Amino acid sequence: MSQAPVKRARRPSGGRDQLLETAVGEFIARGYDATSMEDLSRAAGITKSSFYHHFAGKEALLRAALERAVDGLFGVLELPTARDGSPVQRLRVIIAEQVRVLMTELPYVTLLLRVRGNTETERWALERRRAFDAAITRLVRDAVDAGEVRADVDPALAAKLLSGLVNSIVEWYRPGRPGTATLPEDVVQAALTGIVPSPTPNP
Amino acid sequence: MSQAPVKRARRPSGGRDQLLETAVGEFIARGYDATSMEDLSRAAGITKSSFYHHFAGKEALLRAALERAVDGLFGVLELPTARDGSPVQRLRVIIAEQVRVLMTELPYVTLLLRVRGNTETERWALERRRAFDAAITRLVRDAVDAGEVRADVDPALAAKLLSGLVNSIVEWYRPGRPGTATLPEDVVQAALTGIVPSPTPNP
User: Fold this and answer.
1) Nearest-CA distance A47 → chain B (Å)
2) B164/A contact by beta carbon, under 8 A
3) CB < 8 Å from A in window 106-135 of B
4) How far is A82 from A79, CA to CA, in rounded Å?
5) Could you state, in order of their start, the residue ranges of all structural domains in chain A?
6) Residue A115 buriedness (CB in 10 A; 0-12 / 13-18 / 19+)
7) What is the ipTM of this complex?
8) Among A5, A138, A151, B139, fewest CB within 10 Å belongs to which?
């Protein structure tokens, strides 16, 4: 068909999502504080004013990146399978899906985990992380109360260790790495039965 | 007694160990790259030339700090109780002692865990971390081979998850925090039986 050519952006990689991804890469490599809009424009190969056309500034980029990570994590808590069933069934779903979010949104979650609270946006992100951990703490407490988890488990400590176990994956997981297809289920197994569990007496 | 006053440094806090501790605090707060000898001298309340009297420069400080963390961790592997006994008994000792090193050497281990490999010293530290993880991987493999750990456990993944579990404590542990006296044993328990373990069938 010989229609007039569709008007399209000269840089298909210069869209908002792509700019965000570039910015997050720079934030992770240099540190947020040490990265300027100048650095970001150079990394994206566009002018500073083109960059400002998409994002009001550095903190707007940080906010968009952290929202993507936070929305991914809280989306897990909203899944029907994370809301129904026994506390341990829900925990299983949440841990597996949290690992999946981490694998698919790796740079955004990595950035979220490095946040230290120096800006309003960072303090908002820390508050969201605490809210997520509080939801996990409540669920572990429900599991203990229901007799599904050993009674001597401290829910607050368990939630911190779960968070540490899951989040530590950002340190070494890279997309496409062989042997990581079963990672979500492997982490669930480790959380529920141990990282180095005894053989079951009756296998 | 009316002896002549003992000659003492005007700043008892200006010794080598204290300077190192101050520097590590600044490295953690600002990031190593963003910290100058100027910043360090100011934080320590001494002149730059007094600082250089103790340390040849910034990288010498980093090296001393990372050596302290690395020596602490490798010291664990050298403990008699970490060298004798079944693989799982040795793992129990190593995990507990690794948590203790982390608690007592918190800032130094925190710095070690943030190292990204930008300098020769940082690459040395990363190599030492890999060597430590390799020792744990071998021990988990021995435990699987001895039938002490479930046969479907992947030793390399288990070593990564163990490292993640233990090291995540630096994110929230602070000395003197109530309820952390049993942390070393709690982490051992979590690693061997699960963070949210089922109640034992016959308690």
Assistant:
1) 27
2) yes
3) none
4) 5
5) 14-55, 58-193
6) buried
7) 0.88
8) A5
